[in-house]
Amino acid sequence: MKRLASAALAVMLAGLAVVLAWTVTRPVAPGRDVPALIAGSLDASGVSHPVTAVLLNFRGYDTLLELVVLLIALAGVRCLAPLPPPRGSAPVGGVLRELASLLLPVLVLVAVYLLWAGATRPGGAFQGGALLAAAGILALLAGRDRFLWRLEHLLWPLAGLGVAVFLAVAAGTLSAGGVLLGLPPAHAGTLILVIEGFALLSIAVTLVALFLGTGELEDREP
Amino acid sequence: MTGQALYAVLGCALFCLAFHALVVAAHPLRRLLAVNVMGSSVFLVLVAGAAPGDPLPQALVITGIVVAVAATALGLNLLLRLAVPADDDPADGQGGS
Fold this sequence. Notes:
The complex is a heterodimer of chains A (222) and B (97).
Chain A: H1 2-25, H2 34-40, H3 50-58, H4 60-79, H5 94-117, H6 125-141, H7 148-175, H8 188-212, H9 216-219
Helix pairs in contact in A: 3-4, 4-7, 4-8, 5-6, 6-8, 7-8
Chain B: H1 3-24, H2 28-49, H3 55-83
Helix pairs in contact in B: 1-2, 2-3
């Protein structure tokens, strides 16, 4: 019976795969030429890289709500009862410690560079934030966790800063007579950099806190 | 078949493989990984199915990756919570090191 059920499942999924493959290889009905639309209004977006322009300007809602999703995930994790701390963790070796002290400044520098480069080439707040979070996690693993007590006190302000700044910009564009998140072309580049800078910090803090998980922040000695 | 269409078809196959794993696997970690692979296959289809150089799907996929990471982190923390036996719980959260 169980063998029959798994065979039926395999047949059904194979059929689904065939249908899906047929669907994605069919020619797309001609619609609006979105790449040309984006390329045409790139000059008004404040940045010269189309993906960054879409993320931070043309579809700003997506990015704003994405930051909110990160916050909600963090809230969900922090709502869980704290786990008992892991037992018997090995002491940090000298190689890891030295490697971390060499790598950490470089990682922070590259994260900021990625943020800056996002205006003209692939890069941006998410890539930079992920790298900065990786730097934070490397620091934790290498035993350099003195920044944790600061993170503990400022977790929610730091994690919410990106959304707050984004919302402030949105309210500003709305009250200045424009539309919500319709960045004025003259200041769009600066506004995008400001939004991305705070978003980078919030993303990095949120990812490190998600890595730490439930209640670890309080458990550690400063 | 062009290279792009091949990637889109591969994405569909990957989706169905991961869906199979989601149904068959018993361990929650395997299920979480299966959901992750399903998500990645959708990203693959989105990027491969787009016109070359279309920035819109790329931006959507970046958004999707971040959401997937957040959901995975929440899922992993829930899994860890499930894995700890109830009598091992610190009663009032004072289980500090």
